[in-house]
Amino acid sequence: MDKNEQKSLSDYIGYLAKIDPRDYSRDEQKAYWLNLYNALTVKLISENYPIKSIRDIGKKMDGHSLLNKPLIHVADNPISLNDIENRILRPIWKDHTIHFGLNCANMTCPGLLPQAFTGKNVTALLKQSGRDFINDQNGVTLKNGKLIAAGIFSQYRSDFAKDDKMMLKVFAHYADDRLALYLLGFQGKIDYFHDYSLNGL
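Predicted structure:
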């Protein structure tokens, strides 16, 4: 990311910081928090690049959690990435599709979408991102009788499904037809994997 792009990103984050999302509709609020989370994540990486993993940034902070560090003020409240994900989006919306829109910058999370969320497109974009991710080798892979799924699904299991049987139905809901059929008939266990290397956003 060059200096002009970094300035544009900082200007965009500054613009979002001036907004009180409580003045907007529920869908617009969801879009706002998703966009802010992703913009802050990209800014952190661009300011610390080159790095192999976003976790490398945390190592520079003397052991302090990167996710809990306040990065911005919204409506006069200090806000961290953890605040956005775990104190706002997850508990308020109770919607597993938000995980398809949050870019945690590693290979076992969905990639950054090429457009911003809006109140009008947020539902459709999250569903499309879910389809793209689950049909990608980094999302769900069924090969030689083994089912391997991205660690995000085990990390936030309670948001997706109460057990592996229900998780298979979630995968099948987003999967292409052929994969969906295999998933619905799968009898083995799901192996979850984590890869914290940068996903290129």
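Summary: The chain has a mean pLDDT of 92.
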